[in-house]
Amino acid sequence: MFLPCLLSLCSEEQQAYWVPAARSKKVLGCYAQTELGHGSNIQALQTTATFDPATDEFIMDTPTTQAYKWWPGTLGRTANTAMVIARLLLPQESSSSSPPSYKDMGIHNFIVPLRDLHTHALLPGVVTRDIGPKIAFAGMDNGCLELHAVRIPRANLAQRFVRVTRQGVWSRVEGTHSKAAYVTMMQVRAIIVVHSARELSKACTIAIRYSAVRRQGFDDSKTGSELQILDYASQQYRLLPLLAASVGFFFCGRAVLTLLAETEDALLKGRKGQAEVGALMGRAHAALAGLKSLCTTIAADGIEECRKCCGGHGYLACSGLPELSGNFLQQCTVEGDNVLLTQQTVGYLLKSYIKWRTGGPVLDEECQYFVTAADGAHAEGLGEGGKGLRDEPAVLSLFSRRAFATLERLALRLQSLTEGEASLSQAGAWRRVLVDVMFVSRSHALYTVLRHFAAGLQSLRDGNDVSGVGKAGADAAFIQVLERLFFLFAFYHLSKEAGDFLELGLLSPEMVARVRGEVEILLGEVRPDAVALCDGWDWDDFELKSALGRWDGRYAEALLASAKREPLNHQDPVDGWDRTWQPQWKVEEQMERARL
Amino acid sequence: MFLPCLLSLCSEEQQAYWVPAARSKKVLGCYAQTELGHGSNIQALQTTATFDPATDEFIMDTPTTQAYKWWPGTLGRTANTAMVIARLLLPQESSSSSPPSYKDMGIHNFIVPLRDLHTHALLPGVVTRDIGPKIAFAGMDNGCLELHAVRIPRANLAQRFVRVTRQGVWSRVEGTHSKAAYVTMMQVRAIIVVHSARELSKACTIAIRYSAVRRQGFDDSKTGSELQILDYASQQYRLLPLLAASVGFFFCGRAVLTLLAETEDALLKGRKGQAEVGALMGRAHAALAGLKSLCTTIAADGIEECRKCCGGHGYLACSGLPELSGNFLQQCTVEGDNVLLTQQTVGYLLKSYIKWRTGGPVLDEECQYFVTAADGAHAEGLGEGGKGLRDEPAVLSLFSRRAFATLERLALRLQSLTEGEASLSQAGAWRRVLVDVMFVSRSHALYTVLRHFAAGLQSLRDGNDVSGVGKAGADAAFIQVLERLFFLFAFYHLSKEAGDFLELGLLSPEMVARVRGEVEILLGEVRPDAVALCDGWDWDDFELKSALGRWDGRYAEALLASAKREPLNHQDPVDGWDRTWQPQWKVEEQMERARL
Ligand SMILES: Cc1cc2nc3c(=O)[nH]c(=O)nc-3n(C[C@H](O)[C@H](O)[C@H](O)COP(=O)(O)OP(=O)(O)OC[C@H]3O[C@@H](n4cnc5c(N)ncnc54)[C@H](O)[C@@H]3O)c2cc1C
Ligand SMILES: Cc1cc2nc3c(=O)[nH]c(=O)nc-3n(C[C@H](O)[C@H](O)[C@H](O)COP(=O)(O)OP(=O)(O)OC[C@H]3O[C@@H](n4cnc5c(N)ncnc54)[C@H](O)[C@@H]3O)c2cc1C
């Protein structure tokens, strides 16, 4: 995070100095935003940077325990420099009184040296600590930071977008966009979406390979060989939709990277107007927030479900799944808590909705579906027009209409809560509807994943795929397998969330029953290709680090080999056994002797 | 498990010898059932116990790697004796041929000495190992066991229910019930239900207390103090239904313990006939399987959700939540995998259903609801009859009708799959419908939890509560708070699983919308009592081991104190920094010197 921040937040002069220093690892940087007391509400961060005109410096302070920076990776023992997010306090022009009074300019970014670059000793006024053991990442010294009147030169304010003059006057750098600083955050979120696909696919690979070699339970005959556990419909139902999700997230990740590249391009190359850049930023921000939230939620739950699907052996570290899961869990919290992110996406959707309903400008791609979804008259339903259930446009239309209807319901609800007699404030009403907000964001994001999934399939069919999937030879049979995954993903979620579709009148009860039946049929169809699809992700044994997910299927040998490596086994009886268990005997023997 | 097994599986003579030895910790026992290759399918275990008439011994063998015992707690380094589950092989009477042929008598229990009781050295032919690191329980040496022609006396067969004579003839002990051996397993499952309530309540206590002191996000004013995160509807929606679940599981646990006590009583005191005991066992077995599966699933997911609700700090070990979660996760797998258990419950329900439909005997308490649920005509719906939504009987009736309707649908489906031309075998059809089986079991168990929850409330209202809840003073206000939790739990699940109710025509779309609204209202009503309800569980800080869930709310101080204890912080710069980071400088300095 430190290097990307230098690149996105610092001026060219600053970058000329800091970037090579960071690249050469002389400057070991960390990104220090979160405080003990505040993570999500950045506006409430308490660390201060007070400008001192007398020395032309900022004085950095963490005034309370709550203000201590808390969490930054490498801050504990490794980093010698931090990008610190702090409130900028400028002396009031009018004030020559003592004590001087300050104006709070809000959150800004500062490069703060923490340690001597040669001796690695902490600089005066700086205290850092490792914050202690975590679920995973034992090797990462996430740290805490106290700053007590630490002085840094004025030049250490990150200056790409804002400046403070020698006199302590603040200004925005001309031609820069106020939201441009969010680009780094969006980049990281896009990478997390890609990461969700990859980590989930690893867990699926382990669990599906294992389920194909693990045999448990007799065939009808009750003798002879047992069934592969992957042949139980319940095991398929737990695993195969996750495999489908990993593929959907893959296409989705590709789409958001493209969207982001466009946005950065517009932003950095300055080829578009402020308004246009702003719109692009807003759109990318809303899209990424909702997708990051949905994809990491499904992937985190999914990795754990893969682990459970391995039975007891999934509880062993050597299965690889506990580590995969523990590492991934943080993704639901970092870079925007998953629940909070739903507010950001829905805030944007509502704004777009209201603008559009009141005759505003054309909708962007994220919201384009409002038009068709609102036009119920032209909606051809799933399974209508003789096309059967496997009808991509009908599936997309269905999910888009669900998303739109829940959004519209929310908009109306907010309106009625803020109007009339016992009306609430905007913020009060918002707090009241936060449960709906979660579900609207989820509905929108699910539709978006499906949209990107379908677009990915289309590009394969058109023969112009650029993702590398095509390279594997996107012949018709392969595309058909991916299409099954698309429908499996869609119908799995449709049947799990059937309540919405039924309540909104988008599907009939009979149709829901048919969709449920179709999920079962699809599970059976995907089953024979499941292992090959996992192999297609191309994880090697070294990357999976799993005794259960080995390419050769020899899990029993791998489990045994792993047990043999356990240090506890190198001595028997273990040291100290005589001090812990033997005394029981000793006491008894003494008593017996006493009795003699 | 070892001691309970001695008590339930061994004859009185055997108990007289082994029980005192185990109680005095001379005999350190473990329960060795699971093998590397088999857990769920006990019928396929491969360890053998071959009777040798020549020496009057059993010869114990684990013939393949897959047969190695794998997982038993304390087996690795601690246990000196194991209760080993193995196939009993008896020489065929007719066979005087060499090699002799054996008859496989199926799974039996054997007491196998593993180590010398005095020196703790492994006995000849025995190999044990610790199986390596796990998600949690680092202190427990779950182990693996190889047995190579290990001889044990014939007397070491657990003989409460079966005997083998000196001549190698097998017989069942008269007057014992064939299923009696399952009692231990049921006891453990009942304890797990109780445990689900307790562990979930711990996680809720941590997360809810923290949510009441954690402030994040401004009130409308955008200045001044921030909101408690527990005041966001989304946070309430994630946490309060879990608190309600913990209370529901508490009542449920009490009910299953009572049921089990009845069953044991009937079994052990021999006051009832074989058929009656069999019925009671079947009923308890089915009830416990489904409840263990549902309660541990909800509790495991719920503990993790509580962790996520604490944001980044929930990822720290000192929050107490990672350990709580890691420890609990095994409960979804041990003592019957949660998915497999659904088959056991539904198998029982289907049998009862078919017997009943074909004019069979009266239904037991678990299935009593079939009668009213099938009788649609007399069903008074939720919100009908002017009672509003908070109508316990109507809620119970609704959930029972859902469970019944899904069960009936499954029964019809199985019938149609096994009849007609392209019909499947019973087992083949069963494998096909396993997804439905999961959902039917869940629906039944959810109804059962609600039934026990409502019965618990009724006993409080009647003033004859025996659980200890009443002791806290079951006044009307307290009962009202618990009633809110009942409705919150019910309506939360109703709205999440609304698809079923709508598809089955049990609720109208308007009603589902009302139920959703009611969930929000209930969240607001429960909110003010949430912390007090947690306090009511009476966990002290020592038991919670959580920096976030402290009784005094001082989480910031606790986090900081915990960081200060981290050993990494006792030295700065850390040892070895010069070998890892400094070289960057060295290289550069040398280059500069070279240039001079
Ligand atoms: C492994 C790891 C690495 C990290 N690395 C870094 C790093 O390098 N640098 C750095 O600066 N930080 C880092 N962080 C911190 C991370 O960015 C924060 O944890 C994250 O932003 C969430 O903030 P929080 O922990 O304060 O949660 P909180 O905001 O306190 O959230 C707690 C709960 O309250 C809810 N909530 C909060 N506000 C609202 C609201 N307005 N409406 C509804 N609900 C709300 C949340 O949904 C959540 O359930 C790291 C964290 C972890 C776990
Ligand atoms: C912490 C811990 C402690 C333990 N302690 C002990 C102990 O002291 N003594 C002991 O003997 N054992 C112990 N065990 C082992 C435990 O009992 C088994 O792990 C458990 O019975 C599950 O069996 P399995 O691991 O073989 O899973 P499997 O049966 O291999 O299950 C793997 C997957 O296949 C599915 N599956 C299997 N069969 C079917 C079927 N017929 N239909 C549909 N799906 C199916 C399951 O749902 C699961 O998803 C312990 C395990 C753990 C994790």
TrEMBL record, chains A, B:
<comment type="similarity">
    <text>Belongs to the acyl-CoA oxidase family.</text>
</comment>
<keyword id="KW-0276">Fatty acid metabolism</keyword>
<dbReference type="GO" id="GO:0071949">
    <property type="term" value="F:FAD binding"/>
</dbReference>
<dbReference type="InterPro" id="IPR012258">
    <property type="entry name" value="Acyl-CoA_oxidase"/>
</dbReference>
<keyword id="KW-0560">Oxidoreductase</keyword>
<keyword id="KW-0443">Lipid metabolism</keyword>
<dbReference type="Pfam" id="PF01756">
    <property type="entry name" value="ACOX"/>
</dbReference>
<feature type="binding site">
    <location>
        <position position="73"/>
    </location>
    <ligand>
        <name>FAD</name>
    </ligand>
</feature>
<dbReference type="GO" id="GO:0055088">
    <property type="term" value="P:lipid homeostasis"/>
</dbReference>
<dbReference type="InterPro" id="IPR009100">
    <property type="entry name" value="AcylCoA_DH/oxidase_NM_dom_sf"/>
</dbReference>
<feature type="domain" description="Acyl-CoA oxidase C-alpha1">
    <location>
        <begin position="182"/>
        <end position="350"/>
    </location>
</feature>
<dbReference type="Pfam" id="PF22924">
    <property type="entry name" value="ACOX_C_alpha1"/>
</dbReference>
<keyword id="KW-0576">Peroxisome</keyword>
<dbReference type="InterPro" id="IPR002655">
    <property type="entry name" value="Acyl-CoA_oxidase_C"/>
</dbReference>
<dbReference type="InterPro" id="IPR055060">
    <property type="entry name" value="ACOX_C_alpha1"/>
</dbReference>
<keyword id="KW-0274">FAD</keyword>
<keyword id="KW-0285">Flavoprotein</keyword>
<dbReference type="GO" id="GO:0003997">
    <property type="term" value="F:acyl-CoA oxidase activity"/>
</dbReference>
<protein>
    <recommendedName>
        <fullName>Acyl-coenzyme A oxidase</fullName>
    </recommendedName>
</protein>
<feature type="active site" description="Proton acceptor">
    <location>
        <position position="335"/>
    </location>
</feature>
<dbReference type="GO" id="GO:0005777">
    <property type="term" value="C:peroxisome"/>
</dbReference>
<feature type="binding site">
    <location>
        <position position="34"/>
    </location>
    <ligand>
        <name>FAD</name>
    </ligand>
</feature>
<dbReference type="InterPro" id="IPR036250">
    <property type="entry name" value="AcylCo_DH-like_C"/>
</dbReference>
<dbReference type="InterPro" id="IPR046373">
    <property type="entry name" value="Acyl-CoA_Oxase/DH_mid-dom_sf"/>
</dbReference>
<dbReference type="GO" id="GO:0005504">
    <property type="term" value="F:fatty acid binding"/>
</dbReference>
<feature type="domain" description="Acyl-CoA oxidase C-terminal">
    <location>
        <begin position="394"/>
        <end position="583"/>
    </location>
</feature>
<dbReference type="GO" id="GO:0033540">
    <property type="term" value="P:fatty acid beta-oxidation using acyl-CoA oxidase"/>
</dbReference>
